[in-house]
Amino acid sequence: MKRDEVAELAGSCGLGAWTAFGVLTMVVVGHDGIPLFADADSLSWSVGHRPDVAVALARGLTDTGTGVIPYALAVLAALIAGRTPRQRALAVALCLSCLGAGQALRYVVMAQVARPRPPLTDWATHASGWSFPSGHTTTAALTAGLLIIAVRVRGPRGATPLTLVIGGWGASVGLTRVYLGVHWLTDVVGGWLFALGWLGLCLWAVAHWLPERLTAGAAAPDTGSARGTAEPAGGTAGGRTDTAPAQTDVAREQREGHAPHDPGRRGRSRPA
Fold first, then answer.
1. Could you give the CA distance from residue 150 to residue 60 in angstroms, rounded to a whole number?
2. Tens-place pLDDT, residues 184-235
């Protein structure tokens, strides 16, 4: 896919996600943060289905959506996407900037919306801050998006199954926040939309503004100019010199019963 096509697709996806996120945010603010849609039902189901093993697994999975793990995975995505040391260094800076700036922007939105979390009695893990949009959800979705972009850029075998695994991880982190009772379902949906919109904006900016010379692969070496010896004046073709046509002419003349045009043989008569 060409750079302008990537920019157009990323911009369209980002704009659509931002629009949906804006609508959801206005609905949340308009209802003073009270539960919406399936918020209460999903929380009620989660509280009623919490065996100890499932809670332990959910806590372990939700912890991968915060702290150092997302940043380590963002660096991994950069190393996968880059082909040369320069490209990898640039990709690391871009991925970390995308993740860090996305988290900071989400925090600003969260503080402005100031939506209360579900009741404390329903919590099965520790949480802090306001509720919308979910921080763990946004961070995991951003990280998963960076990894998916890197995998698709390099296009290795098995890219589709790997993309599904990464996407499943990013989505599962968000669902654990509802299961553990620390977020409403719409908080998680808001986190997904926010992450998709921010990723789309970042990818559009990279594809649209970043000079192509910084992302293009290393040029293939010029073997012809690197040779230490000069080639014959006639040049070569496929390892054969231009003497081959002369030899062909000699053979043809011999088959036709004529002597080759050899200046050294001038004046000699041909046998009868």
1. 25
2. 999 999 999 999 999 999 999 988 777 665 555 433 333 343 444 444 444 4
Q: How far apart are alpha carbons 114 and 268 in whole angstroms? A: 110
- Residue 102 tokens, joined: 């996305």
Name all contacts of 46-53 with Cβ < 8 Å and 24+ positions apart. 46/122, 46/178, 46/179, 46/180, 46/181, 47/122, 47/181, 50/124, 50/179
The CA-based angle 33-38-41, given to 5 degrees, is 105
Question: Are the beta carbons of 176 and 187 closer than 8 angstroms?
Answer: no
130 neighbors 57 (Cβ within 8 angstroms): no
CB 124 within 8 A of CB 53: no
Specify the pLDDT at position 212: 66
Amino acid letter for position 219: A
Q: How far apart are CA 247 and CA 244, in angstroms?
A: 5
User: Are 188 and 175 spatial neighbours (Cβ–Cβ below 8 Å)?
Assistant: yes
pLDDT in tens, 24-73: 999 999 999 899 989 999 999 999 999 999 999 999 999 999 999 999 99
- Residue 202 neighbours by CB distance under 10 Å: 23
The pTM (predicted TM-score) of the whole model is 0.76
Amino acid at 156: P
Distance (Å, whole) CA 118 – CA 138: 18
Q: Compute the distance between CA of residue 201 and CA of residue 193 in angstroms, rounded to an integer.
A: 12
Single-letter residue type at 202 = C
Residue of 111, 109, 113, 112 lying closest to 101 (CA atoms): 109
State the DSSP code for 175. Answer: H
Q: What pLDDT score does 75 carry? A: 97
| Residue 236, phi then psi, degrees to nearest 5 | -125, 160
